[in-house]
């Protein structure tokens, strides 16, 4: 009887350990999958914030950009309709499966608008989407960007700061839906003194947000400021740290090299991912 009980106990122990190991592997796999999804949504918010900020800058100074073209860093397949009233401007950008320099493909419409009074200390810019897709991800929502010239802890000299309010609903090609809310602060730390030249612009990006997944929520914070350079289509450095329950992951964009690689670490497991479409 004792031998039978010992055998039964050992069998149960093996089963429990096996199930525990399987659960751990499943959790790790889910964390990695969600981290990859979060990285794709990061690309959406970065491209949108860059486009919105550039459209405001072009409205203020139409001579800025490549060869004084209003589309600046956007490809020629983007059409821009500009509407002016006595007090406001609206720029409607229509993408027709247009590939950006970073490889991401955009389709649909982004509408950006604001006041024509550029003498105020800050400007509120509105943006919204109409049938807009980023790499086949449907993006919906409408929020604002508050742009000002100020001194910050990042740089003491007054410089442009764009505080972007994020509220996006995203539907992936497989039908999965995600909701992200938060804010993203984009500071121009180099190039402010040459407004007609885009090539020397450098941005420092900070912020935090919460993303709701089908299985729960993830809270993300830029723990090392992201660095974006006009001469590179990808973020060149910085770290985003994400937490779900007791699991932590980091997305490290590297040491400043212009490439489309980033290092994703989830609970100690590290993998290299390729950014873009």
Structure explained in plain terms:
With 277 residues, the chain is an alpha+beta fold. The protein has one domain (2-217). Helices cover 21% and strands 50% of the residues. The protein is built from 1 helix and 14 strands; from the N terminus they run αββββββββββββββ. Strands 1, 2, 3, 4, 5, 6, 7, 8, 9, 10, 11, 12, 13 and 14 form a 14-stranded antiparallel beta sheet that branches. A hairpin with a 3-residue loop joins strand 1 and strand 2 (88-99).
Please tag this protein with its features.
50% strand, 14-stranded antiparallel beta sheet, 277 residues, single chain, 21% helix, alpha+beta
What is the compact description of this entry?
The protein contains 1 helix and 14 strands; from the N terminus they run H-E-E-E-E-E-E-E-E-E-E-E-E-E-E. It has 277 residues and is an alpha+beta fold.
